[in-house]
Amino acid sequence: MCGIVGYIGKRDAVPVLLKGLKTLEYRGYDSAGIAVLSGGKLSLRKRQGKLSVLDASLRSDPLQGLLGIGHTRWATHGLPNEKNAHPHLDCSGKISVVHNGIVENFGTLKTQLIQQGHTFRSQTDTEVISHLIECYDEGDLVQAVRRALKEIEGTYAIVVLHKNHPDQILGARKGSPLVVGVGGGEQFLASDVLAFFTYTKKVLYLDDGEIVTLRKNRIAIQNFRGKPVHRNFHRIEWNVSLAEKGGFPHYMLKEIHEQPQAIHRTLAGRLEEEKLSLSFEKKLSSSLLKRIRRVIFFSCGTAWHASLIGKYLFERVAQLPSEVDISSEFRYRHPIVAKDTLAIPISQSGETADTLASLREAKEKGAKVLSICNVVGSTIARESDTVLYTHAGPEIAVPSTKAYTSQLTALYLLSVYLGRLRGALGAKEERAYLKELASLPRRLEEVIKDRHIQEVARECGKRYHTAANFLFLGRGVNFPSALEGALKLKELSYIHAEGYGAGEMKHGPIALINEKLPVVCIAPRSETYDKMASNIQEVRARRGIILSVATKGDPAIAKYSDHVFYIPEVSELFSPILVVVPLQLLAYHLAIESGCNVDQPRNLAKSVTVE
Ligand code: M6R
Fold this sequence. Notes:
Blueprint (H helix, E strand, L loop, with lengths): L2 E6 L4 H12 L6 E8 L2 E8 L2 H10 L6 E7 L14 E2 L5 E9 L2 H10 L11 H9 L5 H10 L3 E9 L6 E6 L4 E4 L4 E4 L11 E4 L4 E6 L2 E6 L4 E2 L4 E2 L15 H7 L1 H9 L3 E2 L2 E2 L9 H5 L3 E6 L1 H17 L4 E5 H4 L10 E7 L5 H12 L3 E6 L5 H5 L2 E4 L12 H20 L5 H12 L1 H10 L1 H14 L4 E6 L4 H15 L2 E6 L16 E6 L5 H13 L3 E7 L3 H6 L2 E5 L7 H19 L18
Parallel strand pairs: 18-19, 18-20, 20-21, 21-22, 23-24, 23-25, 25-26, 26-27
Antiparallel strand pairs: 1-4, 1-10, 2-3, 2-4, 5-6, 6-7, 7-8, 8-12, 9-10, 9-11, 11-15, 12-13, 13-14, 16-17
Helix pairs in contact: 4-5, 7-13, 7-15, 9-13, 9-17, 13-14, 15-20, 16-20, 17-20
């Protein structure tokens, strides 16, 4: 939550910072601010609201400088207003700080600092950092920052700009992401490479407990004990178009359409000509994976839904007993984790605080960790024993779409791999799975381009955007699809929605059904098709409005449905990847009809880096 940027170099810093913040707005968007240094003067501009408000203010009254820092906020401590927007200054107005994370002991520190005579301007936890740096400011900025950070408990990524040090900006991290972009005669710092990858593709990932000093032509990293650190560069492979809207009105719609390419990238190099070749780094050799007796998945939100599907796959395909936790619950249930457990955190961002904390807990208890992440070099990826990257490309819209289908693809790959390794899969069965897996990008493309699906989604958007509630029902491997459909709808359109296993309907939710309730029934051909068809009739009998997802060529469902989304024939285990598309489009159109901001729904942030 919150996006931070820093720039030092040869360009006018303000446009660079604003452009960077624009790409980071997915991390928070309730207020924004920048500070720049020029001619010995530190200038600050902050505004409540979206970045566009700050942008407008800077257009009418510009600031200039060749170095600066910026922030886009998702409020944790203090209202989202101008005073609480970052950067935050010390008493002298020389030191400015942007911060992503939470200073947990800020109450105690603030009281002490006030007793020492410091004056606070905001209600934020962040402001203590600027005042602490001020306390230790004796001319050496790195030392002052290091001493200040020693007093801070919690998580942070910070960028610091000091009026008396016009040749440098400083960054430091513990628990929140911070990446360095290395240019020629210019350097960048940001929460995410997206903020600077149009300027440079050369990056350095900082580790927790490190401070970086950026000068125009030099980068120095040291740890919190003051020891220099050597770090190798990484090269980002994305092309710029991945981070642009490319003619679509919203990132979300673009990312829905990108799903076939995204899952193609997940499969690339791992499944070629229906042959599987997966291998993991040393720490997770195939002989070690063979000895795994149990799997624990943990994740949040949409990634949790992918994990739920992972459980079905792992038990069915690899015959591996599996359980799934919501990351925020895992640690607090004091889980028993045996040494032969494989923990699988799933996270698009690789920075979700609860998933990271669960990973650490599982590791400490002796589990091996294989994470499924999208963002290369993210904290979860780096702290895992090994990682299966999804390579979906940057996902910018807050609602997750292509990250989800590529997580499912990674799970298909992994379940077949483990099934083969453990001898749970016969050669014929394996071939059949791989054939189906290889055909997924093409089938997904077919669904996305299907005019009928698009029209039904648009029409339902028009008809039902004023509905107060929605119910989503699914069975088996599509029970998590029902949860995902409901989550997409809630976060995008603010319509209350519940996802249920259809078998649970008679245990309570059936009481909700009346002629005003749209019920989305996920009923492709499956083992439980007949049961689902009965559930649809039960909804019908209570005059619910039925929107079904069914297999092409199924005439029966249409008889009892008001609207049907037809998807191509696919085996049950692979159906969630196709089923989700109409659900994504439905949520999108319902939100658009209500005038909601689909890329940046209210109160949300793309990456939840605080608990
Ligand atoms: O980055 P992560 O995959 O760890 O994020 C997990 C959730 O925060 C995320 O999936 C969230 O639920 C999405 N906004 C849902 O669309």
